[in-house]
Amino acid sequence: MKTWLKILLILFFMGIISAFLVYHFVINKPHPDYDKEPAKYSLKANELFNQFTSNKKESEKKYNGQVVEISGKCTSIEQNDSLAVVVFSFKAGMFGDEGIRCTLLPKYKSGITKYKKDSEIKIKGFCSGYNDTDVILIKCSIQNKTP
User: Fold this and answer.
1) Which has the closest alpha carbon to 123: 134, 115, 53, 50?
2) Domain contains 83
3) Domain for residue 147, yes or no?
4) Which residues lie below 8 Å from residue 103, measured CB to CB, with a gap of 6+?
5) Has residue 35 been placed in a domain?
6) Which domain holds residue 60?
7) How many Å apart are CA 2 and CA 22, to the nearest integer?
8) The domain spanning residue 137 has which CATH number?
9) What is the C-alpha to C-alpha distance for residues 112 and 102, in angstroms, rounded to an integer?
10) DSSP of the chain, one letter per residue?
11) Helices 45-54 & 56-63, crossing angle to 10 degrees?
12) Same domain, 80 and 124
């Protein structure tokens, strides 16, 4: 067999093995369970919002991509067919209230109905950033058991 054919066969099999490893360890990687993930930071909701509004860059470095637990009085709860969003409003902006928006995991959607406006609530979720009006938490879970 010629040398170049052996080299091509070796490269072909190395490519197949590499593709399998990339699929197995990168593409097929399981998603983290944010409900069971421990919170890296725990603070009041207004403290988190104030940190983002006063120093956006430092807060993004510190909180983005982290599981954060916040507590405070929710100002509204928005629900539709598949989503429930808990809102903490802290100031009126040009386009509406500004604050923190927490999108709940589907299993907590039915349990949010027992909470009313201005209820004290503790929520843990994944901080995905600040869009110059709201701090966004996704994959959130309710941490306190009673309203």
Assistant:
1) 115
2) yes
3) no
4) 83, 84, 85, 125, 136, 137, 138, 139, 140
5) no
6) 41-142
7) 31
8) 2.40.50.140
9) 12
10) --HHHHHHHHHHHHHHHHHHHHIIIIITPPPP-TTTSPPSEEEEHHHHHHHHHH-HHHHHHHHTTSEEEEEEE--EEEE-SS-EEEEEEEEEETTEEEEEEEEEPGGGTTGGGG--TT-EEEEEEEEEEE-SSEEEEEEEEE--S--
11) 130
12) yes
Which residues are paired to 97 by β-bridges?
Answer: 92
- For residue 124, the Cα-to-chain-centroid distance in whole angstroms is 9
Question: Looking at the structure, do residues 71 and 18 belong to the same domain, yes or no?
Answer: no
Locate 78 and state its tokens: 């928005």
- Taking only the tens of pLDDT, the chain with its 147 residues reads 688 888 999 999 999 999 999 888 888 877 888 888 899 999 999 999 999 999 999 999 999 999 999 999 988 888 888 888 888 888 887 777 889 999 999 888 888 878 888 888 999 999 999 998 899 999 999 888 666
The residue to which tokens 């406006």 are assigned: 117
Rounded Cα–Cα distance for residues 23 and 35 (Å) = 26
Residues counted in the chain = 147
Which among 85, 117, 121 has a CA at the least distance from the CA of 104?
85
